[in-house]
Every structure is written in C-alpha cells, then in structure tokens.
Amino acid sequence: MKPYTYLIGWSKQNLFYYGVRYAKGCDPDDLWKKYFTSSKRVEKLRAEFGEPDVIQIRRTFETKAKALLWEETVIRRTGAVLSESWVNMQNAGKSFNHNGVARDEKCRKKIREARLRRVESDPEFKLICQERARSVGKRADVRVKIGLKAKERYSDPSFRQQNIDTHNTPEYKSRTSKMHLMRIQNDPDFRERHRASINTPEYRELQSKLSAERMADPSYRNRTSTTMKAVLSDPEKRKRMSEAARISSAKRIETRRRNMGEAGLSYGMSK
Q1: Domain count, the chain
Q2: Cα 221–Cα 225–Cα 231 angle in degrees, nearest 5
Q3: pTM exceeds cut of 0.90
C-alpha cells in the first residue's frame, strides 16, 4: 500500500477535485487506470464533460494517517468546500450540501455521534483523528484559543479536581498507555521522536528521581511486592520474563559492541 493525494480537473470548465487514496494495495500508478475516485460528483462530471485533462499525483505518503491529514490541510487552505471551482463537498468530517452550504445542527449532531462511535470502535481511525487534532493545534491562533479556554476551565476548582480524578483512574491510564503504544507502532516519526526523548541524561535522571520517590512510599513498595510475588508464582510468566531479559541483554551487548566498533575499540575495552 502506498497512500497518495491526487488532483483531477477539467480546466476548460474550471472544475477540480482534490482527493486521497489509501485502500489496501493501492498504488499511484492505478489512478485513472483502475481507480477513478469515489466521488459521485466527479462521476457526474465525467458523464457531462468527458475525461478530465488534469490528472496528477500530488504527493505520496508512508501512512494512511499522513495522507488524510495532508488532504484535509490542502482542502482547508484552498477553501475548496466553499469554492465554485472545486467539487469537494467535505473536509475532515465537516459536510456541505451541493450549494456549498454547511449542514444544519441536527445533521452535524448525527455526524458527530457517528464519528464518536467510529472512534471508539476503530483504533486506526482514532489515530487519524488524533493526528488531525495535533496538526490543528500547531497553528498559533488555535494555540492561543486553546490556552485561554484551558485557563478559564482550570480556574474552576471543581473542574480541576474532576480532571485530576479522571487522569488517576486505572481505566484512563490503561487507555492512554495503549494509545501511546499504538502511535509508537504505527507512526515512524513519532517512534523516532520517542526514542530521542528517552535517550537523554535529563530523562534518565528524572526517571531515577521519580522511581526513588515512589520506592520511598511504603504503600507503593507493598503493592509492588505483592504484584511481583503473584507474577513470579506463575511458571509461564517467569519463563516469559526470563526470555525477555535474555533478549534485552543480548541487544544491549550488541549495541555496545557496535558503538565500540565505531569508536575503533574492541568490546570489553574502555576509552
């Protein structure tokens, strides 16, 4: 699969469509040979004006999420959903009718509810939504609005306490941990940023400090001890832990050998 964005147009009629393709097994070479977009409006234009004279692959991407995010960015920047020259009717779930007029509140509510249901049931779609939110959040005007709104909400003691309580629940911690692992697995750029962030003296020092603070708490030590005793009482779990430790140790040794080799030293020597 090689996701991509594309441009289709009828220059004489000044009509264009910007789309994205990310289906399983898709390839840019398929455009207008095997794939003719999923837009009903493009289908009608083909019937009325014939084949388009503008058929372009605009960009290719490593992931579906990045392709969708770029499509949204382009459509937003061009104002395509409200332009007479573009036949795009929606962007990032914000639908418009054939006259370029936004849907009414009742319709938008149905779209939001359907979107939330999909977010809850589709981890990949959830990741895409998170990427979009992060992209929008990078804009200076949006950051200012978010900051002002956050200050307003956190000035309320009841909201602040509710937020703290929510973030400290096992369900929330488990959910955010799974989301984080999903991003590490599916997003190469995030994975590299994550590795870079944890391989610093500052990060290791912080983790060491936090660990010392936790271990100074008798209740934490008791919980940890109870949990480890339960884990170690299971032969299968002990076997998996032993294997994981062996693999981790082998990786550390290999990394050290490689680093020493690059420095012109033999393994076991010191600089």
Answers
A1: 2
A2: 145
A3: no
- Rounded CA-CA distance 102/64 in Å is 27
Containing structural domain, residue 12: 4-93
104: enclosing H helix or E strand: none
**One pLDDT digit (tens) per residue for the chain, 271 residues:** 889 999 999 999 889 999 899 888 899 999 999 898 888 888 888 998 999 999 999 999 988 888 888 888 888 777 776 677 888 765 444 444 444 444 456 666 776 777 788 878 888 777 777 777 777 666 676 677 777 888 888 888 888 888 888 888 888 888 888 888 888 888 888 888 888 888 888 888 888 998 898 889 888 889 888 888 888 888 888 888 888 888 888 888 887 777 776 656 555 554 4
Residue 82 lies in a domain: yes
* Residue 14 belongs to a domain: yes
Residue 208 lies in a domain: yes
CA distance 18 to 67: 12
Please state, in angstroms and rounded to a whole number, the distance separating the CA atoms of residues 113 and 107: 10
